[in-house]
Amino acid sequence: MGSVSTEDGSTPARRRVKSGSSASPSSPAPRTAGGKATSRGTADTAASRRAKSKAVAADDTAKPAKRKTASSALRTTAKKPSAPPAAARSRRTTTESGEEFRSVPSAPPAVTSAPTAVETLPDDRYFNRELSWLDFNARVLALAEDESQPLLERAKFLAIFASNLDEFYMVRVAGLKRRDGTGLSVRSADGLTPREQLDYIAKRNQDLVERHTAAFKEHLRPQLAEQDIRIVGWADLSGADQLRLSSYFSEQIFPVLTPLAVDPAHPFPYISGLSLNLAVTVRDPQGGLERFARVKVPSNVPRLMRVETERGNRSATFLPLEELISAHLSDLFTGMEVTEHHVFRVTRNADFEVEEDRDEDLLQALERELAQRRFGPPVRLEVAQDMSEHMLELLLRELEVDPEDVVEVPGLLDLTCLFQLSGVDRKELKDRPFVPATHPAFGERETPKSVFATLREGDVLVHHPYDSFSTSVQRFIEQAAADSKVLAIKQTLYRTSGDSPIVDALIDAAEAGKQVVALVEIKARFDEQANITWARTLERAGVHVVYGLVGLKTHCKVSMVVRQEGSTIRRYCHIGTGNYNPKTARLYEDLGLLTADPSIGADITDLFNVLTGYSRQDTYRTILTSPHGIRRGIVRAIGEEIELARAGLEAGIRIKCNSLVDEQVIDALYHASQAGVPVDVVVRGICSLKPGVEGLSENIRVRSILGRFLEHSRVFHFRAGGTHWIGSADMMHRNLDRRIEALVRVKDPKLTRQLDEVFDSALDPHTRCWVLSSSGEWQPFPAAGSQVRDHQLELAKLHGAVG
C-alpha cells in the first residue's frame, strides 16, 4: 500500500523523523499492534525544517492574537465613546446679551448589541478533517483485524486501507504540501496551519502503518498459510518450481523489461506515480566501478503470480513479480555483478485543476492535464527497510523527496495487491454470495412489468444493493430506450462501469431516433480517462454530450424520460444517491426515488436546462440543488426544527451521510442541540462535529457503520417539520460550493416509513458500529458481551435479499 525478500511480508512502516508537534488534536493515537519502524534521515535537515515550521507557526499564532486585540478595542469604542477633554466639557456658549448656554452634549453610548449566534459557540468546536479521515481509515483497518470476519475478506480490507491511503496522499496531503510550499498558511477550521496538519498527519499515519504492518505480518499472513494460501519468496520455491518460473520469465517477462542506467549519458529516469520499481546497484568486474540502474516492474502482469500449475486443489501459492525479476537480474545486466537491489515506490500529487475558463474545449484541456498528472511532484517515497544509505540518498536527491516523506517497508510493499486474493476459490473464507432482490413494485413475471405503468401508480423507493439495480434503475433506462412512445432521455453520468448497460441503452435510444442528452462529468477524479472515452463513444452514436458548468463538477444523480401518452407528455424521473454503475450498485449502499410526480419532473427539466444551456436557477419546487440551495435549505430546516421544538412539538434531526465537515451546517446542529433538539448522525467517513460537549452538543450523537457494503446514501429527516430528503450531496464544502448536487424530498408516507426503518436500524442500540466521543475517540459499540446485530444483514433480510 518491500524489500526484495518477502519473508516477513509486512506492510509499510514510516521512517521516523522526530517531530516537535504535540499529540493529534483530533483523537488519541491508537495502541500500536506491533511492527516498530526504524528511523533514518537527515537530522540537520529535519531540525532546521522543524525550527522553521515552529517559527512560522509562532508568527501565524501571533497574528490572530493581534487582530483580536484590535477587534476588542474597536468594540469597546463602539459601546462606550471616549469622554471629551476637560476643556471641552467645561466649555460654555455665550450669546451677545451675555446669556450663557450649555454646549450640545455628546451622543449617548451606542446600543449594546446582543451577541450573534456564532459568538456564542466556542472556537475549538471542530475536529480536524484530515485527522478525522485517518480515523476513518483506522476503522477500515479495524475490520481487517477483526477475526470474526472471513479471512479473505480481512485481506480485502487490508488492501482497501492501502488503496485509501494512496489516494489520501495523492490528493489531501499533496494539497497541504502545495499550500505550505507556496506560503499560503490559511488555517483549517480547527486553527491549524498546513505545516501543522502535515506534522500531525505524519505522526498519526505512523501509528496506522505500524498497525497495518502487524495486521499482515503477525496475523493475516500466518492465518492464510494455515489455510494453504501462501505468499512466498523465490528462495521458498522448490527446484522444479524455480526451473518452470525461470522459463516463464525468459519467455513472458524478460522481453517487457527495460533496465535504465543512471550515468552522465543516461539521466535519472522518470518514475511514474504508484509504479513498483527495483533500484539496482551493479559493479563492473573489470574496473570495480559501481553504477545505479532502475527496473520498472510491469503493471500489465499480475503482481502476485500463481505458482501452481494445477488449480483444482485447496492450496494457492503466490510469488510477487518483483521476486521473480530480482532472481534474474543477472540476465538483465550481463557481465556485471549485482551488489544490491531493493523495491521502491513513489506517490505523486494527483490533485490538479483545469483552467476551464481559458479553454474552449474542456475535453482537450482535461486530456492535457491528465498527461501532466504522471509528472506531479512526489509526496511520499516508500522504500525497502534494508535499503543502503547511499541508495536512499540517491533516490532522495534525484526524486527531490523530503526525508520526512520516506516510509520504510520491512516486507511486502504495496498491499493493494491483496485484492488479487479474492480470486482464490475458497468460498468458506469469503462472505456468502449476495443476491439482491427485485423490488416488489417491479416483481418478476414472464414479461417484466412496464416501469412506466408502475410509476403511474405511485412513487417507488429503491434501496441498493438490497433492491436489484438491474431490475429497477437499469430496466427504467433500457425500457425507455426500447419504447416507441419515449421522445427523449436525459441522463447524468459521473462514474459508470467499463461495460455499462446504461451507456449501451443510451446509444440504442439515440440510434432509434430519440433525443438523448448525456451530461458526462469528465472531471470525476481518477475516472477522467474512462469518462472521456464514454463521452466520445456517446457522441459518435448521436447522443448530445455536454460536460456541465464551467468551474463546477456535476455530481448529482438524475435521469429523466419524456414519454408521449395520448395527447399529453409525461415525465418520469430517477433521483439517487449513487452512480449509474451496475457493478458498484452491488457493493455500495444507496437510495433512489423513481417517480412520475409532475412537480419533480418540472424541477428536473429546469435542472437539465441549467446543466445544458444558459439557464440560471437556484430555487425549485421539490428539490434542493447546490451550489446555492442545499446548504441554505438544510440550515433553514434545522432552524425550523428549533422553532417547532420551542413551540412544544416533538422535534428531532437524523442525518446519514458520508462526511460532515461544513461549518455552517455543524454550527446549525450545535444550535439545535442547545435548543434541546435531539440530533443523530450516522457518518461513514469524516466528521468534524464534536458530539457530547456540555453546553454545546450534549444532545448530539454520532456513530459510524462500516461493513460488507460501503454506506453511501445521504438522507436527512426533520421530525417536527415532517420532511425527508435524499440525494447526492455530503455536508462538505466541495459538495455545497463547487459541485452541482441535488436532493429530492420524499413525500409518500409509505416511502418515508422505509427511510425511517433505515434510521431505526442504524441507530438501534444493539447495532454494531463505532460511536464518536467528545474527545475524538471512535469507540466500538456495543460493549463486548452485549447482544449485537448487523445493520446491513438485517436490511438484506428485510428486503428479501440473499447473502
UniProtKB/TrEMBL annotation:
Keywords: ATP-binding, Kinase, Magnesium, Metal-binding, Nucleotide-binding, Phosphoprotein, Transferase. Residues 126-232 form the Polyphosphate kinase N-terminal domain. Mg(2+) binds at residues 495, 525. It catalyses: [phosphate](n) + ATP = [phosphate](n+1) + ADP. Residues 243-421 form the Polyphosphate kinase middle domain. Catalyzes the reversible transfer of the terminal phosphate of ATP to form a long-chain polyphosphate (polyP). Belongs to the polyphosphate kinase 1 (PPK1) family. This is Polyphosphate kinase.
